[in-house]
Design goal:
Largest sheet: 5 strands, mixed
Number of strands: 12
Number of helices: 10
Radius of gyration: 21 Å
Helix content: 40-55%
Shape: globular
Structural class: alpha/beta
CATH class of the largest domain: Alpha Beta
Distance between the termini: 62 Å
Number of domains: 2
């Protein structure tokens, strides 16, 4: 029997679809990026060969997965941000997605595409579950993925499908590779297509009472209708919109009088791994500007995100 595979980001969906296609894939191009200067032809060739060898080893070690790319249904709804006032993805959720993507020139179009895909996938999910297909949910520690899990439970419960066969695969906090390298994961979108099959061994069935409990928790979060949700001490909580501001302010304090806004956002994402994306942080930086804490002194170049500019402290 086929199985519905649920993820909560487009990057995770792309990686999982590749994982489910590996049996029919004989190889592809391997790209190598160089930072800090132009390499010599010999250095470039050596790096390319190392990358191709790593690719070959990863492919050889990949655990085959059953299923088809068509089984992957993505719900990139960013449910950790914005109001929760709709039973199904609708105009208010689209507003939240558009606000998150507003710093990119193509943001509104991308938000509309994500919404349309999620609406279509929700209808497909319910159709297949009613037909008796089981559901596998790939859930990581990021607030969007925990929100997605609870939201999915509520959707099934609301559709009279609380007894559906559901199983969950949780993302490991880290892995230690054979060469001693420690790999940390924040979300399933960071996982290589070659690793999904091995990680599928972490799957556990979700008992019906637990699925219903998650649905009730999502209903409670909807009643609270906070502007933001975060994982606090392992629990999904409603939090105020300035919850992550202290991280931005800490990095701003480390900057000179004039600084690149993208540098601050990148430092917060890389140093603290808060589980929130650049869109929310960019919106909070705009809030600092409106409050008179900062002022822009340059504008981004065409085609660049809005935060690709220089700011001055006031």
């Amino acid at each position: 029997m086929s199985m519905v595979q649920v993820v909560f980001s487009e990057s995770a969906a792309g990686s999982l679809k590749m994982a489910l296609s590996l049996d029919g894939c004989i190889g592809g191009a391997t790209a190598v990026a160089f930072l800090g200067g132009e390499p010599s032809p010999a250095e470039r060739l050596a790096a390319q060969r190392r990358a191709e060898e790593q690719e070959r080893r990863a492919r050889a070690a990949a655990v085959p997965m059953e299923g088809s790319p068509a089984d992957v249904l993505a719900f990139p709804l960013a449910l950790s941000v914005g109001p929760l006032e709709e039973d199904a993805p609708g105009p208010r959720r689209l507003e939240a997605l558009t606000a998150l993507c507003a710093h990119w020139p193509e943001g509104p179009r991308q938000a509309a595409g994500s919404m349309a895909g999620a609406q279509k996938n929700l209808a497909e999910l319910l159709r297949r579950v009613r037909a008796g297909e089981p559901v596998r949910v790939w859930q990581g520690p990021e607030p969007d993925e925990v929100c997605g899990l609870f939201w999915l439970a509520w959707q099934l419960q609301n559709a009279g499908l609380a007894d559906a066969a559901v199983e969950r695969v949780t993302l490991p906090e880290y892995e230690v590779r054979e060469d001693g390298t420690v790999v940390e994961y924040a979300g399933w979108g960071e996982v290589s297509p070659y690793d999904w099959g091995r990680m599928a061994a972490r799957v556990r069935p979700v008992p019906g009472p637990v699925l219903r409990m998650w649905g009730h928790r999502w209903a409670a979060l909807c009643r609270e209708n906070a502007p933001l949700r975060a994982v606090v001490n392992g629990q999904l909580r409603s939090v105020p919109e300035d919850f992550y501001d202290f991280l931005l302010l800490r990095e701003i304090a480390r900057q000179p009088e004039t600084f690149r806004e993208a540098e601050v956002i990148g430092q917060v994402l890389g140093r603290y791994r808060p589980g929130i994306g650049d869109g929310w942080l960019a919106g909070r930086m705009e809030n600092f500007i409106r409050r008179g804490l900062l002022e822009p002194i340059t504008a981004p170049e065409p085609g660049r995100p809005a935060y690709a500019r220089t700011l001055r402290k006031k």
